[in-house]
Amino acid sequence: MDTYFSSEITRETALLVGVSATPELPRALVEDYLDELAFLADTAGADVVARIVQERKVKDPAWFIGKGKVDEMSHIVEGGQIDLVIFDDDLTPVQARNLEKAFDCKVLDRTELILQIFAIRAKSSQAKMQVELAQLEYLLPRLTRLWTHLSKQKGGIGTKGPGETQIETDRRLVRNRISLLKKKLKDLSLQHATQTKDRADIARVALVGYTNAGKSTLMNRLCPSAGAYAEDRLFATLDTKTRRLELRINKVVLLSDTVGFIRKLPHHLVECFRSTLDEVLQADFLLHIIDVSHPGFEEQMIVVRKTLEEIGVRHDNIIDVFNKVDALDDAEKLRGLREHYPEALFVSATRGLNLNALKEAISDYVGRQYHERHIRTHVSNYKLIGYIYQHAEVLDKGYEDEDVILTYRAHTRNLKHIDARIRAFENSESHVA
């Protein structure tokens, strides 16, 4: 896939465009959105040299913004030597084509910019395939002359049907590539499920949050050997990293660092990264990491909650963890937040503040999911006894006549399987009797 940006080429200059609609979308809020868009552009490798906000209730179907504003921006682009124009909203294929012709430069919308960043950040083969799939599905309806190079991926014979135009050939090649990527990702997902089958007996915790909230830094603090990539950039982490975390209750949990969320996260990305986000769905509970120093952290919290709902999280087993308290200078504000979010934890991953309290909270939460049971069975029932030893923690063991008496503690998930084994044994015994 071609990308517009690369850390190895000269940085481009960008003009940002936002549209406000007072009172539903006031200009001040749009300016905040453009601040985030500027951070995205910087992460992708572009320097923002100007920004424009237009007040407009209804989007123009041909230009998105008004035709007069297009003419005005054309002069700005030409005079300022702008390399690309980035819109904070999604553009239709028609709007994008019209604007590119008017500005005579590259035009991106927010979704395409995020896709480009993901393409740059992707390191593993799975992440690269997921990003490429998202890019192809997004660009398929936008095909123009961009994709003529795809016809060179295969030999010329048999790649073009009678009367078929070049654009139709390109669409067919893209669809074939999409089908192939989906099949490969499905195979990888099945392979991952097989490799992680042994984790079923261990409690699982996933770190979720808005991008750049400090999840990877916190992961490295809690699990020093994690080696999670952490940088003050958006989407520094694309691949899920899972490590063991030892707790005071003599238990081990699996802690997973996941891809960050963002406002208007492209639907194609959510769908393509669904297999990666399975760690979130399979987790016993989530740690929602929040950048408390960000002025719009409450809106970011809403974005994360909505994204979790979108990927299928239907429970409230979530602990709010306000990170970067060391960057919050207003002590009164911090005191107010503690009162407003009494169940939340306030930490600094960078400085290691209050991390013991976080571990205690994880221990308490995990401890609630373990329950103690007793069983008395004949010593000859070695299969059941062995299964209990394998999937539970045996706290006490005693003998009476030919029976063995076990006191064990197990995770709620494992208790269901143990109880099923016990019932199956009792049924088989009753049939024999």
From TrEMBL:
GO terms for cellular component: cytoplasm
Tree of life domain: Bacteria
GO MF terms held by the record: GTP binding; GTPase activity; metal ion binding; ribosome binding
Cofactor(s) it depends on: Mg(2+)
Keyword entries, A-Z: Cytoplasm, GTP-binding, Magnesium, Metal-binding, Nucleotide-binding
Alphabetized Pfam families for the sequence: GTP-bdg_M, GTP-bdg_N, MMR_HSR1
Keyword Nucleotide-binding: yes
Hflx-type G domain location: 203-370
Residue positions binding GTP: 209-216, 235-239, 257-260, 323-326, 348-350
Cell wall biogenesis/degradation found in the keyword field: no
Compartmental location: Cytoplasm
Binding site for Mg(2+): 216, 237
Record's function text: GTPase that associates with the 50S ribosomal subunit and may have a role during protein synthesis or ribosome biogenesis.
Family listed: Belongs to the TRAFAC class OBG-HflX-like GTPase superfamily. HflX GTPase family.
Subunit structure: Monomer. Associates with the 50S ribosomal subunit.
Name this protein carries in UniProt: GTPase HflX
The species this protein was found in: Prosthecochloris aestuarii (strain DSM 271 / SK 413)
Gene name in the database record: hflX
